[in-house]
Design goal:
By secondary structure, this protein is mainly α. It contains six helices and no strands. The protein starts with a helix and ends with a helix.
Length: 168
């Protein structure tokens, strides 16, 4: 590749990675996957070279952590009770996730957030007939969502930084 075309290629990939990184704020948007695929594409086109494989391996490990941490944090916070109180049930969480996926497809990503939290609130209320407890569990899931966004954004930025070190 010529010098100018390599720089253009890197700039385009960096732009795609930044779109993926900004998209991490939106639930159900696969920003970590977008960043990982851009790094993979770079390695395939330019070659992994002598250090590229190590950088790509590190990027892959961070991507796997990001994929797992996303749902794990939301579920952890929703399941976590205060003191002796138990958290949300697995059934409530599963139904909330289904509602979130459907809401994201039918409405928008923001509709997916509302559907997820609304479904958790409704199912938990129907399960125990205690609005206060259902609301607390819903708040904890929302808090977990916030921590998941922070984790994904941090991991995504670290993935982009590793790729930039590798690419330049």
């Amino acid at each position: 590749m010529h010098s100018w075309s390599l720089e253009l290629f890197r700039a385009i990939l960096l732009g795609g990675m930044l779109v993926g990184w900004l998209g991490l704020v939106v639930p159900f948007f696969p920003g970590i996957t977008v960043i990982w695929l851009a790094a993979l594409f770079y390695g395939i086109v330019v070659g992994f070279g002598h250090c590229g494989g190590c950088y790509f391996l590190a990027i892959t490990v961070l991507a796997i952590i990001g994929w797992l941490a996303d749902n794990a944090l939301m579920v952890h916070f929703a399941r976590k009770g205060k003191g002796e109180e138990e958290g949300a049930s697995w059934t409530s969480i599963a139904l909330a996730f289904v509602a979130g996926v459907v809401g994201s497809i039918v409405l928008s990503p923001l509709g997916g957030i509302a559907a997820t939290l609304g479904a958790l609130l409704l199912v938990e209320y129907l399960r125990e007939h205690d609005l206060r407890r259902a609301w607390q569990r819903t708040q904890r899931m929302a808090l977990g969502w916030g921590w998941a966004i922070a984790a994904r954004m941090s991991l995504g930025l670290l993935m982009i930084a590793l790729w930039a070190i590798w690419a330049w």
